[in-house]
Amino acid sequence: MSLRLNPAEAHPTLYKALITLEGHIRQSGLPHGLMELVKTRASQINGCAFCIDMHGRDAMKTGETPLRLLLLSAWRESSLYTTQERAALAWTEAVTLLPQTAAPDADYAAAAEHFSPAELMSLTTLIGMINLWNRLAVGFRLQHPAH
I need a surface site. Which of 37, 48, 61, 134 has the fewest CB within 10 A? Predict the structure, then answer.
């Protein structure tokens, strides 16, 4: 697979706007470790190796363990995740797989139990943003570094 297009070079102004929005999300008050779990899980669903690599590494920098990252795709069957993380991961899957799930009331209610309205807006924007990054990375064939 080879790079199809470099998004930052193709449209610098638009790319800068995406980076700015990403910065606002990062400053939203959501725990950074939780944000990296959400980004990694959505990237797994979307098959984005570039983003799985990036956010898995970023998660470990926040103190995330390799075991929890390894089990992330099976989080429902693992006792290693908090109730808040489980609510965020369920909402991540519901919003990422929107055509299949239609964002079920139960997933929304679980998320609303653990996040304020502002945090829920931040979480949902984070999910939408990582889905956009996944589409850019997969669509344009961005390659993760060979570590």
Answer: 61
Tokens of 100: 């299949």
- The single-letter DSSP state of residue 74 is G
Considering the chain, what is the average pLDDT of its residues? Answer: 97
d(CA 130, CA 125): 9
Rounded CA gap, 108 and 145, in Å? 36
Contact indicator for 44, 52 with CB cutoff of 8 Å: yes
Instruction: Check pLDDT > 90 for residue 146.
Output: no
| 3-class secondary structure per residue, 70-129 | HCHHHHHHCCCCCHHHHHHHHHHHHHHCHHHHCCCHHHHHHHHHHCCHHHHHHHHHHHHH
Count how many residues are written for the chain.
147
What's the token pair of residue 17?
């706007």
pLDDT tens across 61-115, in order?
999 999 999 999 999 999 999 999 999 999 999 999 999 999 999 999 999 999 9
